[in-house]
Amino acid sequence: MSHKAWMKTVPTENCDVLMTFPDTTDDHTLLWLLNHIRLGIPELIVQVRHHKHTRVYAFFVTATYESLLRGADEIGLRKPVKAEFGGGMRSFSCEEDYIYENIENELYFFTSQERQNIIRYWLENLRAKQGEALHNIHFLEGQPIIPELAARGVIQQVFPLHEQRILKRLMKSWVQAVCEAQPLDDICDYFGVKIAMYFAWLGFYTSAMVYPAVFGSILYTFTDSDQTSQDISCVVFAIFNVIWATLFLEEWKRRGAEFAYKWGTLDTPAESIEEPRPQFRGIKRISPVTSAEEFYYPPWKRLLFQCLVSLPVCLACLTLVFLLMLGCFQLQELVLSIQELPRIIRFLPKIILALIVTACDELYKKVAYWLNDMGAW
């Protein structure tokens, strides 16, 4: 509820990323984290707000235009270059900022997604110093602070804010539009390249499905009812699908490369090694690879947990589902065998089965979360 409440509010100052805390968070935790953010990331502007109804504290996080430019240089954000300097896409550099398009316009140079991406990068790279601790949470040297606090539940959520103006425009030009091309550039600017690439593929796939649909319908219409004609039609349609699938794949490779070049991700260098999951726990040791302190969990313990806990729990869940379904089927047979029962009672086993499926879904979701978290140890 707190997440929905924050999403409906209008910030009293500029805000790109919102960080919320549980209503049980004490002042020491808030001041500790606020001090670390302001000292460790001086580029950020953080305002503390308290939600009146949910009693939840939140940090409204944003940054100045100059700080965002330095952040874009730091993460190598790719931006379009002016035509007189060669055009195309290039990693941003503060030393040559004059060569980029719209650099003079603070409102249009960065999209909201780019601003939020830079701020998220800073927040996720706030590192702990040696021996730092918050209550019973002890950090390793160089460990990211905010992902660890989020995994521990100290931070409730960290999420970017939507821009209602852009959402309304996308609603009209994309969601509510009929028989019109998707505004892929607007989607990329707002949601990022990965989301835009997914919808580009989805639109291309949907359009490509028209060809087998039309050919299959024509083939079905002119096929006789005898077995020989049907067999010939199946062979012809199978050959058509093989050709269509090959052309579809090759055309999408070409189309995807065009989008990747257009959006500046075609020659993006490989991502650096990701940080370990914040939920991962273990014993502290010196890494034989990096010579830095890290958490280590022996593989034999993980294998032992999988064999003695994960496997029996999964088998027990499957057995429970089988027995419950078998019981519902037996109840259905019993109800149908009694002719004197009212008609509405005959639907009772199906209703019970639907309730059981819903309850089991919630139960198994909690079990899956527990097994996943335990697997991080």
UniProtKB/TrEMBL annotation:
InterPro entries, per the entry: Anoctamin (IPR007632), Anoctamin_TM (IPR049452)
Compartments where found: Membrane
GO CC entries: plasma membrane
GO MF term (any one): chloride channel activity
Residue ranges occupied by any Anoctamin transmembrane domain in the UniProt entry: 187-374
Pfam family, one: Anoctamin
Swiss-Prot/TrEMBL keywords: Membrane, Transmembrane, Transmembrane helix
Signal peptide: none
Principal subcellular localization: membrane
Membrane topology per record: Multi-pass membrane protein
Spans through the membrane: 198-220, 232-249, 303-326
PANTHER family, A to Z: ANOCTAMIN, ANOCTAMIN-8
Family under the similarity heading: Belongs to the anoctamin family.
Protein name as annotated: Anoctamin
Species for this entry: Neopipo cinnamomea
